[in-house]
Amino acid sequence: MSFAPTSSSSEQPSKKQKKSDGEFFPNVPKIEYKGEDSKDPLSYRFYNPEEEIMGKKMKDWLRFSVCYWHTFRGKGADPFGFPTMKRHYDDESDSMENAKRRADAAFELFTKLGVEYYTFHDRDIAPEGKTLEESNKNLDEMVDYLMELQKKTGVKLLWGTQNLFSNPRYMNGAFTNPDAHVLAYACSQVKKVLDINHKLGGENLVFWGGREGYQSILNTDIKRECDHMATVFKMALKYKQENNMTAQFLIEPKPREPTKHQYDYDAQTTIAFLHTYGLEKDFKLNIEPNHTTLAGHDFEHDCIISSKYGMLGSIDANTGDPLLGWDTDQFPSDPKKAALVMGAVIDQGGLGSGGLNFDCKVRRESTDDVDLFIGHVGAMDTYARALRIAAKIREEGTLPGMIKERYSSFDSGFGKKVEEGTATLEDCEKYIQENGEPEQRSGKQELYEMILNHYV
Ligand code: XLS
Ligand code: NI
Ligand code: NI
Predict the structure, then answer these.
(1) Rounded to the nearest whole angstrom, what is the distance from the C-alpha of residue 59 to the centroid of ligand 1?
(2) Does the beta carbon of 288 sit less than 6 angstroms from any atom of ligand 1?
(3) Alpha carbon of 188 to those of 127, 171, 174, 176: distances in Å?
(4) Is residue 266 domain-shared with residue 224, that is, in the same domain?
(5) Which residue among 166, 207, 211, 254 is best mutated to probe the pocket of ligand 1, counting the most ligand atoms within 8 A of its Cβ?
(6) How many domains does the chain have?
(7) Residue 359 Cα, ligand 2 centroid: separation in angstroms?
(8) Same domain, 286 and 428
(9) Is 332 in the same domain as 412?
């Protein structure tokens, strides 16, 4: 694809640029849908927000969201190297002025992309102070500022969350820290995030337990730690209910990293945890495909399994790299994989209050401002194309029909009795006495794969 880069460093507006000077990304236009034949990387080929697919607008199926941390706080540092990116709107200071300028740039990006949602951690939007009071004061000032930007642009908050993993105080965990003092600090942060999330109209609230797990089983009382985590969730629920808050609570599973073992290992483990502690009605899951693959599953696995159990609340729509061992948080670019995820979303009738949040960062080597846009445009188009593919599969019905047929022995007679839960072991034995050896039935995996490719 031919593309003239628009932001070599010599073309960047000077560092002294004030927001009154106008745009932060002057070389990026409002991104428009130009159709499949477009060769312009700053256009959508598949994402046509108002177009209806299976009775709903594309934008309402997809509910795209930009994350603040990677896109506006990430600078390309990795475990082996320093930051590589300079942003002209970010003087890298901890000042409130800088935080506000960053927010202005962020809302310009959201608006130009045509994304209606964003997400943040408390510490992404406002500098952490020396005390909790100071941090909360900074947050309050920024929340007022963000509220104005939300009003001006119509962009909404998909979810807020609390950063309980960066500050050294959380090195041994937050809700699962062996020290009650640290737990209290973490919970104070949760309380504040509940408040600001509510004030900004956050539709969900995420708990990701980055350090809720262990590095060594030798120094860890697993049962007490899991009990404490559940107790904190109950405190948060109580506060939510008492204050008439409506945000859907979401837990984001991840098997490891930064801890060696994280308690919210994957979707099934987290669902079991919620049931164990009687929390299953008050929480859903926020599934991140890159975490799913880190847990040893396929990209789509956790989305599908949580959806089947009515627990898929939202998606952190990123991807990993099979050759790298960590959460590389790449922008998704595989429409076939994304189509399996969108299939789960269609089958459950949409994401409800959730969305497709790009918990993604441009590569460390992608240092131009415009790369931030290209990453999102490509990922949005991947999911828009995936929605079209998944819808077509359902409208034509070949694959769903094949699956239905595969299980048809459970639709009547003996099989139906099994599904209804009324069959006994004696019935099973009698069935075999009457019918003998089952016939071999091919799984036909290659046929399924071939047919899926017809749609991609
Ligand atoms: C980290 C997580 C994190 C959560 C929010 O791996 O994906 O970014 O989404 O705390
Ligand atoms: Ni995430
Ligand atoms: Ni992640």
Answers:
(1) 24
(2) yes
(3) 16, 17, 11, 15
(4) yes
(5) 254
(6) 2
(7) 5
(8) no
(9) no
**Any idea what the CATH number is for the domain that residue 172 is in?**
3.20.20.150
Paired tokens of 76: 């390309």
The residue whose two tokens read 């404490």 is 228
Mean pLDDT of 55-68: 98
CA-CA-CA-CA dihedral for 10, 16, 19, 20, to nearest 10 = -110
Quote the domain boundaries for residue 411: 399-455
CA of 426 to the centre of ligand 1 (A): 50
Pull the structure tokens for residue 112. Answer: 């130009």
- pLDDT score of 95 more than 50: yes
Ligand 1 center to residue 282 CA distance, Å?
A: 20
Residues 190 and 224 in one domain: yes
Task: Give the integer Cα–Cα distance in Å for 262 and 235.
Answer: 21
Q: Each residue of 228-277: pLDDT tens digit?
A: 999 999 999 999 999 999 999 999 999 999 999 999 999 999 999 999 99
**263 CB near ligand 1 (under 6 Å):** no
225 lines ligand 1 (CB under 6 A): no
Catalytic residues: 121
Q: What digits encode the pLDDT tens for the residues 119-133?
A: 999 999 999 999 999
H or E stretch at 126: none
295 plus 418 within the same structural domain: no
C-beta 208 within 6 A of ligand 1: yes
For the Cβ of 316 lying below 6 angstroms from any atom of ligand 1, the answer is yes
Query: Residues 275, 423: one domain?
Result: no
**Does ligand 1 lie within 6 Å of residue 327's CB atom?**
yes
As given in the structure block, the two tokens for residue 255 are 């098997």
Q: What is the pTM of this model?
A: 0.95
Which residues pair with residue 44 across a beta bridge?
33
Q: Which atom of ligand 1 is nearest to the CA of 70?
A: 8
DSSP secondary structure letters along 278-345: T-TTTEEEEE-HHHHHHTTS-TTHHHHHHHHTT-EEEEE--B--TTS-S---BPP--HHHHHHHHHHH
Cα–Cα distance for residue pair 149/205, rounded to 1 Å: 20
411 located within any domain = yes
Q: Which residue owns the Cα nearest ligand 1 atom 8?
A: 359
Question: Which numbered atom of ligand 1 lies nearest the CA of 318?
Answer: 7
Ligand 1 pocket mutation pick from 167, 288, 319 by most atoms within 8 angstroms of CB: 288
Tell whether 122 and 30 lie within a shared domain.
yes
